[in-house]
Amino acid sequence: MQKMPKKRNCRRTQEEQAIHTRAVALRKMTDHQLVEYADRALDTPAPQQLKKDAVMRVKILDTLRNTKGIGAATFAKLEAVVERVFGSETNI
After folding, report:
1. Which residue of 2, 11, 34, 79 lies most exposed, with the fewest beta carbons within 10 A?
2. What's the CA gap between 18 and 63, in Å, rounded?
3. 29 Rama class: left (phi>0) / alpha (psi -120 to 50) / beta
4. What does the pLDDT read at residue 1?
5. Rounded distance, CA 27 to CA 34, Å?
6. pTM of the predicted protein model
7. Which of 51, 81, 76 is nearest to 65 (CA)?
8. 89: pLDDT confidence band, cut at 50, 70 and 90?
9. In degrees to the nearest 10, what's the CA dihedral of 41, 46, 47, 50?
């Protein structure tokens, strides 16, 4: 992997400067702080993703419910699988 040439501070855009500042703060964190930061980031999914998952779950269940040849017992089993995949907290 090639190293990119270093960009001078005066040539950075506001967005690039903000990213650089955040990256420096992450590099200066201790191991304990990094682990806590990563755990918090992984434990809290983005609200948009939760909404997207909930919509997808509803679409899948509606499609299965309206499919010929899938009875109540089979649908219940498939619904349990969908609940396991998407989690029960995405109920609408």
Report:
1. 2
2. 45
3. beta
4. 60
5. 9
6. 0.42
7. 76
8. low
9. -110
CA torsion sign, 84 to 86 to 88 to 92? negative
**What is the distance of C-alpha 1 from the center of its chain?**
28
Of the pLDDT bands very low, low, confident and very high (cuts 50, 70, 90), residue 9 is confident
Structure tokens at 3: 């190293």
Instruction: Say what the alpha-carbon torsion angle 61, 66, 71, 76 is, to the nearest 10 degrees.
Output: 10
Phi, psi of 67 (to 5 degrees): -85, 130
- Mean of the pLDDT values across residues 32-42? 79
Rounded Cα gap, residues 74 and 61, in angstroms = 12
Show the tokens assigned to 73. Answer: 């017992």
